[in-house]
Every structure is written in structure tokens, then in C-alpha cells.
Amino acid sequence: MAAIDTPATPLEQFIIATLYDGSTATAAIEELRQAGLGDKVDSWLGSGENQPLTADEVGKALGDTVGRVAALLGTSTDDVAERVTQTLPATLEALSTHGEIPQQ
Q1: Cβ atoms within 10 Å, residue 89
Q2: How far is residue 93 CA from its own chain's centroid?
Q3: Which InterPro entries has this protein been placed in (predicted)?
């Protein structure tokens, strides 16, 4: 499991909370899997190297959510999607235990 060197910024915390709609991370993981990103998700949850996530993939997988976050923050969907690509893989990796996200 990778260590996170710096605390999440308020934007990153907000994105994470909004992506999960207040539920557990498993809901977001399921959305990503349904969007065809299962192999990438598995790489973040496992012990190997994380596969990168692109802003296009984020937009396709979580478009409505990204749009909501952008509107709430008064920023572009491109900015939000790019931040998600930087945050989501490491966050899911940090939350996982033996390839699974513990149920809350």
C-alpha cells in the first residue's frame, strides 16, 4: 500500500466525498467497473503497479458526477476530471486491504 505524502486538499476531499455520494467506496468502484475500467481498478486495489487513469475515462465513467462537482466548485469539468485522475487511484489503493475495500 502506498503512503500518501501530503494531506488531500479541500478540492480533493470534496471530489472524493462527492464521487461516493456519501456512501462507501464500493459504489464508485462499481461505476468504474461498469464503465469498463475493471482492470485499472484491480490494479489500484492490488499490490502491483497502478495503471493510469485518463481524464477522458473519468468523464465517460463518472460524467454526471464530475459535472456536478465542477458546477458546485465553479470550475471546468476538465479540471475536475484531471484532479480525479491524480487522486482516485492512490486513494483507492490506500483504502484497500488485500485487494478489497473494507465495508463501512
Answers
A1: 20
A2: 10
A3: YidB (IPR045372), YidB-like (IPR027405)
pTM score > 0.70 for this model?
A: no
Q: What are the domain boundaries of the chain? A: 11-95
What pLDDT shows up at residue 9?
66
- Residue pair 37/88 in contact (Cβ under 8 Å)? The answer is no
User: Would you tell me how many other CB atoms lie within 10 Å of the CB of residue 38?
Assistant: 13
Residue 35: exposure state from Cβ atoms within 10 A (0-12, 13-18, ≥19): middle
User: Who has greater pLDDT, 87 or 27?
Assistant: 87
Nearest to 77 by CA among 92, 90, 61: 61
